[in-house]
Structure formats: structure tokens, C-alpha cells
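Explain this fold:

***
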Amino acid sequence: MNRILLACSSGMSTSLLVTKMQAFADSIGEEAKIWAVGQDQAKKDMADADVVLIGPQMSFLKGELAAEAEKYGIQVEVIDMMAYGMADGEKAYKQALGLIGATS
């Protein structure tokens, strides 16, 4: 199962993307747990994730979150701007899978 954590300022702007990513994972028969949290919760939840994707508006926090993620051997990356803006669940899911593959 792929465990993908999305983080944004409040956890609200990524909720549509979570829905679309989950729908894409389901459509290709992959088991995935995808959830969104606000930036304050991200450090706590990353222990349960395989990868963390952050909203473009949080790119300034990437270094801080990546340092925390090192403890768990996972990557943190900014969600592709086009995927985020268009709520492209397929593109965002594939981005996450690429990062998971790079760390395993």
C-alpha cells in the first residue's frame, strides 16, 4: 500500500487533490492511503507516510520538512504546480510514486 501525505497551509486546498489521487489509484487497482493535513500536523503525520507532497504555497517549508522526513527515510517534494492547479490526481499520484520508488 502506498501511503501519501499531502500538506498545505490548512489542509483544505489539497482535499480535492486527495480525492482525485485516490480515484486514480483505485482506477488502476492500487491500494493507497492518501490524506491531507495542515502544515502544523505534517511533521506528526509523516511517520505514517511513504512520501510527503506539499502545496506550492508551502515551498518555503520544504527544507524544514525534509530534515524531519530524513528520520523516516522518506522524501518531501513540492506538488507539481500544474497538477496542483488543475487538481490532476493522476499526475500528482505518479509524482508521489516516483518519489517512493526513489527511496525504496
